[in-house]
Design a protein that fits this description.
With 243 residues, the protein is α/β, with parallel strands linked by helices. It has helices at 9-22, 41-49, 62-72, 108-118, 134-139, 144-154, 157-160, 168-176, 192-203, 210-221, and strands spanning 30-35, 52-59, 77-80, 93-98, 119-128, 180-191, 228-239. It has a domain at 9-132 and 161-191 and 229-239: Vaccinia Virus protein VP39 (Rossmann fold, 3-Layer(aba) Sandwich). The chain is built from ten helices and seven strands. The chain binds S-adenosylmethionine (SAM).
Length: 243
Amino acid sequence: MAPSYGQGVYYARRRSTLIGRIAPELRPGASVLDLGCGNGTYLAAFGILGNVGSLHGIDLSLEMVREAKRRMAGRAHLVQAEVCALPYRAQSFDLVLASHVLPFAYELGLAVSDIARVLKPGALLVATLGGGSARGALRSLMAPEQWAEFEKSAFDHSLTRRIDRGPERYLAAGRAAGLQVEMQTLTFRLTWRDVAEWLRIRWVGIASGREIAQRIADEVLAPRLDQEVEVRQTIMLARKPAG
Ligand SMILES: C[S@@+](CC[C@H](N)C(=O)[O-])C[C@H]1O[C@@H](n2cnc3c(N)ncnc32)[C@H](O)[C@@H]1O
């Protein structure tokens, strides 16, 4: 998982859509922190932008940190850490990215208040909320009973059980931390072939019910592989007041 996470068209498009939204917010020389940086795909994309001053990433998984170090080859500062206890001084960063990690935080309120601590005055937290993925699009193709069987077979619930997908908790946590919060929706387009690739790379290979999951995916996706689908992603933009 650590070397392969983030491969394929779905992740590439999700990344470029988010980076495209963030890029205009970056002033030249900005210091950027990527929380739950995984194997470093977002850090690499920030590196390509050219106007970033310093790149930092944390991840709870040592394996992911190792992969990110390998990918970034000295161009980013990487450490193993938890989002609720950031190993940085107050007011260190111009931008903090939390892509698909806050839903796993030990305690969302603690994580957001520690992020607020490390933001410089006027700096921005960009966080994706759980649930904005190809999964929702896939669900719309299935009858409720078929979705229930597919979901049980395809997705590892030890990873997804704790995820709270609603924006209300994120809004409340941002406001409690003194941040100015707004929600936005990003969209990007894929084909169902790309969704099938995402399922294969990310989920079905490790699923406990992999034969059932693959059969249902084939049944539902085979007739429409070349059709396009729109994927929506809700993000939170939370700015620390300039002071
Ligand atoms: C779903 S992946 C997202 C990776 C990347 N940010 C992206 O959007 O493609 C979640 C990542 O967050 C890490 N993670 C999960 N819980 C964490 C926590 N409490 N603190 C720090 N990292 C965490 C995982 O190890 C994993 O690399």
